[in-house]
Amino acid sequence: MWRRCRRLAMKMSCFTPPGEPSSVRHGFSTQCTPVHYGTRSRSSSLGATSSAAAARAISTAKGPHVQDSEEDEDEEEEEEEQEDSYGKQFEIGPSLLQDAPPAMELEEVSFQFLEEITDGFSEERRLGEGAFGVVYKGVTKNGGVVAVKKLKYPDVDPEYMQFKNEFDHLKKLRHPNIVQILGYCYETQKKPFIMDDRTRVTTEEIYAALCLEYLDNGSLQKHLSDKFCELDWHTRFKIIKGTCEGLKYIHDKLEEPIYHLDIKPANILLDKDMVPKIADFGWSRIIGKEQICKAKDRYGTPGYQPPEHIETGEISRKFDIFSLGIVIIMIVSGPEGYAIYLDGMSTDEFNKDEFINQVRKDWRNRLQATYRDDFSIEAYCHQVEACTQIAVNCVEKDKQKRPDILKITEMLNEIEIDVGQNSSAYPEQGKLFTMHDLVHDLAISLFDNQILDQSKQGNNSGSSCQYALLTDCSKALEVCLTPRARLIRLSFLDNSRSKLSDAAFTASSMRVADISESSVQTLPDYSTGKWKQLRYLNAPGIPDRMVPESITTLTKLIYLNLQGSAIIALPESIGEMECLTHLDLSACERLQQLPDSFRNLEKLVHLNFSNCYHVKGVPDVLKGLTNLQYLNLSQCSLGAFNCRLRGLQDVIGNLTRLRYLNVSNSLHDIPVDGINSILRSICTFSNLQHLVLSANFNIFCIPETVGKLTKLHTLDLRFCSNLRRLPASISEIDSLKFLDVTDCDMLDKSKLPRFSKCSVFLPHFFVHAGDGKPSSNLVELKDENPPKLEISGLENVKSVEEAQMIKLVEKTTTRELQLEWTKDAKRSVEDIDVLREFVPASTLEVFTLHGYNSVSFPTWVIRIAINLPLIRTIELNDLPWCRTLPPLGQLQNLLSLFIIQMGSIRKIDEDLCGGARAFPKLHWLGINRMENLEEWNTTYSHSEDGSGVLVFPKNMEMYIVDCPKLKLKPRPPAGFSDWVIKGSDNVLSSWGEEEHCQVTELFVRNSKVPLHQWRVLYHLPALSILRILECRDLTCSSLDILRGHPTLKILTVEDSESIAGLLDGLETLTSLEKLEIISCTGAKALPEGITQLTNLRCLKIKRCPELVQWCKSEENSMKLAHIKKIKLVNDEECDEELESDEEHEDTCKFTETTILLQASICSS
């Protein structure tokens, strides 16, 4: 017989076989008392199972229980007596979806209720499977959603222990990055069973489940299908940081730290805002003061376990840190990147820095397609690099080298601040104010019980409440407030997706309603009259597509914020809201049409339409809004076929009270005359303080009347690429503090107006000679210390002393420095003498030298590796007389090097390397417009074995552009993977029998030699991508040149003649997956061997009329039947797709950002 016992202290039933102490089972004590069991049992907490659990465990663990004694019959009678009392409890559960209170008095729910809300635990409701249970989606009758984790094998000890373990831990964890437990189920049901001998026996089944908060976006695992899935970097960083914050909480913020021991993407769940929450605590353990222990069994998931645990069973904090590192690697680089990392770690030659650089490179390519702001791109790339470095450190084999979670979160906080404060990629944020503790205490004492804050324990009632912060927007106010309350301001902090109850706003005295921190789906009905005193409504991000018409009954409303909502239209009668002064519709991307009555909002002072890409009728409604002081129309016509702001020139002149105007990236389709009219009108706005005209390429000049804007503080002209001049009158605006002309490529900086303060133009500073004066204006930089400094017009420096006075070496804040002399301009001082005094601070990271005219460099440049150890980017541009290069290869942190237009250099030799182990982190190398460069000697002297060949880091990109005489001797550098060759035919053709290069991507542009002379192709066995652009002769006398590329997967040919020879050799490219032929008029037909390319999945033919017709013919279309995606385009307006399969595979897509980057670098 099995003995039944109850551990009274824990209120938990436990069972021990004869001869064994009860502590063997479940780790409980040996205190036991007789217990009984019933037909259906319940408990007041998970640890409080009834006597029925005893019999259930006996039945399920040892087989059916046979009733063969009077004692059993008596026991059954007692069970029947208990059944009624348990039945009364069986129906509870609908309140499960409400947040558990801080005390975590969790609710017990019946298994029947769980079956109802999960549709009988159907497959359609199945969400996933955890370590010991299957998770289902539960939906209650009122629409609430919960996740139900059902124990798979409750009668099996390890499964049950994990269930109990997760419950014990989750019930005491309260953190925004830990999944929240809402309730539980633990009960038995007796079922009759007839044995083979017709004996009647009774069996019992155990039902155990945890009820957890439902997280809309599921697990992180499903979002990591590839490294460039739908998650942008900002979201990925949020997931990384949130996960680390959750881990920090369980490691360092609890009295008894908890080690999770199964951190992996499947156990990181994401809510509707992509906030991560750590889940599945079935493996977790409280280790105690020892902090390190040894386990007989192995914990966690293979692939996420640290080596010390695999080898010895050791468990410590560093177990979770190792798993965290693997997760971060997958977040930043995707499963493919993780696989590459694992493969590399298995070899002794793996270079972690190269892996980090590759991740950064991939993200840079993607970010450059999204952001125009270089600072934002650099800031995000810095985050990418930092996160990847953290991950690499976390997976160190030696656990002592892994950082602790406090250090990790500290590093993440630092880089989050960097981007958050400086990146223009972030939306505008509200201002945050800090109140001194003493002032706060005084305010609390004065308000006494007028404040109700349900988010804080112990503050759940206010007898005379006027200000309330509630946590449940589905309840009526009467539930929360006393009759004496006269509510003025109401805010919600509600993480459920509840509908906003009309009864939540029954206080007729209410003036302010803020639901910005809630997750409501729709706005309530405003026609009840209870809202009539409302002045302020903050409701951003509402998912509902329609704003209720009744909102227009809020005739006293002053402030309305619907930012980021999914609305497609506004109420037709919105013009009846006659008191409205502040309206924010920014980022309402689906908003399409404004009602005619909008123009009746004559009291509007603040109007924000930024990022409303599709909204029409804006100029029409602006006619009557003459009281506007703030108007933001930035990106109002982005991606639109017809300019949404056409006609703005006819109405903007009426907005004379404007203080802030933003039309960034919105005026593209307005004709130049219209642009000039708009600018002339703007220059009459005497109150204007901030004017943003950035990213409008059809602005050519600013009117002279801009000088009349006497209150102007900020003028943003960034990326106005066609802006030619600024009027002299702009320097007369005494109030002007910031004038940004970054990337105004056509603007002559030497003719910029002179301001009394040089800080106006910073980071740009042009040196003026100062006619009749003994010195230039360079001295004005003496007290400036900007993060970025571009000094041009250095030929106007009149003495070495001027250069000494600005003390560049002390400007430690300056991380980017550009020094520029005007080409062919007369000098008062030799360039080398000026440069000698311009020693930057050792903190410099980016250095550009342009137009330098001396033959050699000063000492600090020759010793640059010592003086500037942190340099990441160097550009040497238009140095016509320099004959040698400094030893840049010894810069240990150098990522980018561009050598451009140095006409006196005929040979690059080992001086560039400066010795062995050169360029350890180099990511980009560009050699551009070096017309006289004849040889690049890629060997360097080595003290031990004589000489070696320059070896670049793996995955480096090299650009050789317009170097017609250049030959690489004795062979190309090793290591790099991406190669762009433009107008440099000797690099293509002058190859001997050198060793092969492991280049995987080659882009050839503007070659005049025929294809069969491209000897470079014989030495690239790993080539997978080949792009050919503007090459005259692609005749191929021998197909051998193509047969040597069994790995080629993508071939693109554009704007090239005589392509027939290349096409004839296609059948040898058996691994080809994608073929693009663009603007090649000589292409008439595809070869018969096209049918042999069984891996070809994507064919794109554009602006090749005869070839397009060939493909469309019925006979030839059969030859292409095996290709899944075919795109035939005759011109820009004709686009026909023929698909033999509806499936659109991601492998058919290719990233355009690489081409864009290459084109920008190759452009002359």
From TrEMBL:
Alphabetically ordered keywords of this record: ATP-binding, Kinase, Membrane, Nucleotide-binding, Repeat, Serine/threonine-protein kinase, Transferase, Transmembrane, Transmembrane helix
Segments forming a coiled coil: none
GO cellular component, one term: plasma membrane
Location of region: Disordered: 37-90
Membrane topology of this protein: Single-pass membrane protein
Tagged with keyword Mitochondrion: no
Principal location class: membrane
SUPFAM superfamilies: L domain-like, Protein kinase-like (PK-like)
A Pfam family this chain is assigned to: Pkinase
Record protein name field: non-specific serine/threonine protein kinase
